[in-house]
Specification:
The chain is an alpha+beta fold. The chain is built from four helices and ten strands. Strands 1-2-4-3 form a four-stranded mixed β-sheet, covered by helices on one side. It is globular.
């Protein structure tokens, strides 16, 4: 928490020739969501992410989904990352690191996070299906990469195994929410930022 932003919240608007997005994120929330992305499967994943991370997330997005879901998913990830980066502010007192395993029936995913101000994604996942309904599974990588880039976090995602693509991706988003909740939590033992450099 910061003195001027006690709930660590931020709002981001992004309008391009392909998308029009309005997103609000509260880090210290209670899992309240209001989602209109135009992409049903992404709505489902963001709902899981917010509820498992105890984030409040409000999203209204319009995009050229008549072409495909790529631009809309990518720009939502950009806005979500920017909102997280802004909401965390100076990062004073945060735990910084987290590693979370989440099972979803036969699938197991792991997400490891460093709120480092050094954007990086390592992604290890092989899915049985290229699509979940109309949603292309390659967009999971695109979403996570743009989110990590704009949030300025180091993000490692490993899907250890699974047979059902929906379950595998669902485990990823649940683990992402839970890992971010842990990494961004304020630890009263931490004085300043958790870095020997004195800055994140």
């Amino acid at each position: 928490m910061t003195e001027n932003n006690p709930q660590r919240s931020a709002s981001v608007k992004r309008k391009t020739g392909e998308t029009d997005i309005d997103l609000q994120l509260t880090v210290d929330g209670s899992g309240i969501v209001e989602l209109e992305s135009g992409i049903p499967f992404l709505n489902h994943m963001l709902d899981l992410f917010a509820k498992h991370g105890q984030f409040d997330l409000k999203l209204r997005a319009e995009g050229d989904i008549d072409v495909d879901d790529h631009h809309t998913a990518e720009d939502i990830a950009i806005c979500l990352g920017q909102a997280l980066h802004e909401a965390l502010g100076s990062k004073i007192g945060i735990k910084r690191y987290a590693s979370v395993f989440v099972p979803m029936d036969e699938a197991l995913a792991q997400v490891i996070i460093d709120v480092s101000n050094r954007p990086h994604l390592e992604y290890r996942a092989e899915y049985p299906s290229a699509q979940i309904g109309s949603f292309q599974t390659e967009l999971v990588h695109e979403f996570l990469w743009k989110f990590a880039l704009e949030a300025r976090i180091t993000l490692h995602v490993i899907v250890h195994y699974g047979r059902n693509t929906h379950h595998m991706v669902e485990a990823v988003f649940k683990a992402l929410g839970r890992a971010l909740d842990e990494a961004t939590r304020i630890d009263p033992r931490v004085k300043g930022v958790p870095s020997t450099k004195g800055v994140l």
